[in-house]
Amino acid sequence: MKRHDRNLIVAGICGAVVGVMVALAYAAVPLYDWFCRTTGFAGTTQVASAAPAQQLARRITVRFDTNVAAGLPWHFEPEVRSVDLKLGEVATMVYHVTNLSARETAGVAGYNVAPLTIGAYFQKINCFCFTEQTLKAGERQDMTVVFYVDPALAKDPEQGDLNTITLSYTFYPVRAPQRGVADSRAPGRSE
Description:
By secondary structure, this protein is an alpha+beta fold. It contains 1 helix and 10 strands; from the N terminus they run αββββββββββ. The strands form 2 sheets. Strands 1-7-9-5-3 form a 5-stranded mixed β-sheet, with no helix packed on it.
């Protein structure tokens, strides 16, 4: 085999490896998201469409933690700090959010549960998370989350002594898009 042919083969292999690496880089985020949603990894909760068929006698305390990231002038708190539920019992939690500023602001809430291994059992039926919320100056809103802890938790030997779960929300500011020079002209004025 000629040296020129070997160089072409090596170049082709290198190009194929680079192509595979680029494809994997693009696929990494959706694959990681799918993995977390499927396994509950890193406290990622599950999404349920309906209540479970059964409730168990075993009880668990669910605590509610609220945070607001810097730059968002909101007060955010749960109506109650914790609830005691049976496994499989559906609960509705109300959160109060108030815009403390003199202007309209927007935020988006992210969440997780702790311990991180419990995400596979924490089922949300309805939630305000990842939906942009806009509050006028001084406005107060009530936001709800509907959830249950899957009765399958009772069968997990690693969770046998678990008696408390923490559901934590953090609101992050949503910045208004920057207006371009063309958008900043006075209305009705043309050039």
